[in-house]
Amino acid sequence: MNNKSRKLVFLYEKFKAFLLISLIFICIIQIGILWSSQSGSFPISLFSNPKITSSISIEDSKKQYLLPYRVIISAGFFKEHYIIENGTREYEILWKGAVNYITQALKARPTQIRPYNEDEWGTLVATKPYTFEFKTQIPIEIVNWTLDLGKTANEGLSGIYKIVICPNDPDNSYSDTLYIRDGKKIYVYEIKDYKGNSLNQDVFDEVYKQQSGDHHSNYQMTIEMYKRYNIPKDLLGMFSGRSKESYPGIVCKPISGLNEQGYSYKDFAQISKDLFGNSGSDYDYDKDVNSTIVFRKADGVYRLYKNSILEYKYTGNQTNIEEPNVLAAYKNAIAFLLKHRSQKSDLMSNVSVYLSSITQEQGTYVFNFDYSISLGDKKGEVPILPKDYTIPNGGDELNNCISIEATSKNVIHFKWLALKFNIEKNPGRSDWNFGEMYQKVYKQKDISFEDFGIYYVIDNPKTYEKVITPSFVLYTKDGRYDVLIDSK
Q1: Could you tell me if residue 360 is left (phi over 0), alpha (psi between -120 and 50 degrees) or otherwise beta?
Q2: What gap in Å lies between CA 68 and CA 83, rounded to an integer?
Q3: Same domain, 206 and 290
Q4: φ, ψ (nearest 5 deg) of residue 183
Q5: Count of the separate structural domains present in the chain
Q6: Is the pLDDT of residue 32 over 50?
Q7: Residue 335: band (very low, low, confident or very high) from pLDDT cuts 50, 70, 90
């Protein structure tokens, strides 16, 4: 074979190799496109890093999930106390200011650490101008991550449960002072040379004037009224006089088509769109032997029950030999929540979500969240609680609107109250007194409680539309009790 022939053979073999590589590459792209159309992502990260994309969305939204469920301003002991309604302009102003103070404080060491004393804490809440309360203790790792603090000089602070802030504190040499309570102790932080004006006297006066001018209820503190009783001393309530406030009815509407006996292709498509928004077509759907609607995608299965509970279970490899990390599990839970909220489904369009409890299981953490429904136009929010919602056929009870069980690697179980909420235009006028409502719940005087509030309780898990009105809810060590408030 001469040199020319050898060269032609070489070029021919080189062309075949190039063609083969090109065909393989095209096949990989086609597989990726098919996978993407079915599950929303490529099987391997060829063109993007899903962790980076997820991290950006979490970073942009993480502060939405660290919100106090109660903000209080106080003019002093035996003086006016007001609860600032969640979602209002005043709530946002005060919490933004509190975040500035918390960020400054946690960069330094506490000036004092003392055991938690109920009377002392109740006096602080009644006396100092600002109090911020979470439903549960937020682990310090989550606080640091949310506020971009990194590692801080916490000196044993395990988390943040309640915070009292007093600019120019007369009890601490007129320094700006934070009192942070975790489960066992009170940590005192003194902020020197604070240059901001986020919670100064002018801000307090503006919020106080707005609250008193709008005829909001003026609450009393239990330490001012019932110091000898076995009741938490930092609770606020209408212990004297009557509360006369307007509360709208809330329309609770199940997903369209859920009450059908049989499901057509059109029903499945509409329900899938209601649940998953623009991603609804990515799921394979069917029904099981109990006529429960089933959606499948990648390594997970969703089931939508007749009582509007949507349940997800991870079906992939669940081997986890590592000790669970609360921050990693929390990030996975928030990412999962954000994924469902970003699919442009109208189920969560007017809903805020508040972290209500964290429990550690064997190898996992369970994060429970409650809903709060926006009234629109910065009029605040109203909280929602489910009652008597249980997964059929011996399943778990859903005591919160969202429950997410996660490991350090992924979410393995998810329960969600999938209802649409609308606010009625004409609010009813409530007229209630704490003592009367307490008696209606207990029928006796000597039972203690840990907390109480006005909530909208969904207690009729049916497949038809229903209007709910406010209830008086008491929390005790034995459980949660509620009674409907009369509305006019």
Answers
A1: beta
A2: 12
A3: no
A4: -70, -25
A5: 2
A6: no
A7: very high
Distance CA 359, CA 404 (A): 11
390 and 341, same domain (yes or no): yes
Among 454, 456, 458, smallest CA distance to 474 is for: 454
Query: What is the pLDDT, as a whole number, of residue 53?
Result: 35
The answer to whether residues 217 and 258 belong to one domain is no
pLDDT score at 247:
85
- Which amino acid belongs to residue 172? N
Phi first, then psi: what are they for 397, rounded to 5°?
-90, 145
| pLDDT greater than 60 at residue 26 | no
Question: Which helix or strand (DSSP H or E) is residue 133 part of?
Answer: strand 130-139
For range 93-114, the mean pLDDT: 93
Residue 280 per-residue DSSP state: G
Cβ neighbourhood burial of 266 (10 Å; 0-12, 13-18, 19+): exposed
3-state secondary structure string, 89-108?
A: HHHHHHHHHHHHHHHHHHCC
Range of the domain at 129: 65-240
Clarify whether residues 224 and 355 are in a common domain: no
Calculate mean pLDDT across residues 306-323.
Answer: 83
C-alpha to C-alpha distance for 462 and 306, rounded to whole angstroms: 8
Q: Are residues 279 and 206 in the same domain?
A: no
Residue with the two structure tokens 């509030």: 453
The pLDDT tens digits for 53-66 are 343 478 888 888 89
Residue with tokens 């070029």: 11
Residues 218 and 318 in one domain: no
Please, which residues have CB within 8 angstroms of residue 230's CB and are 6 or more apart in sequence? Answer: 448
| H helix and E strand count, the chain | 10, 26
Residue 406 lies in a domain: yes
**DSSP strand E in 387-427: where?**
402-406, 411-417, 420-423
3 state DSSP class of 352: strand
Do 326 and 392 belong to one domain?
yes
Provide mean pLDDT across the span 175-191. Answer: 94
Task: Give the neighbor-by-neighbor strand order of the sheet with 112-115.
Answer: 81-84, 70-74, 130-139, 159-169, 175-181, 185-191, 112-115
> Distance of CA 190 to CAs 106, 144, 179, Å?
10, 19, 9
Contact 483, 470 (CB under 8 A): no
Residue 244 three-state SS: coil
What does the pLDDT read at residue 446?
Answer: 56
Structure tokens at 319: 């081997």
My answer on whether 418 and 278 are in the same domain is yes
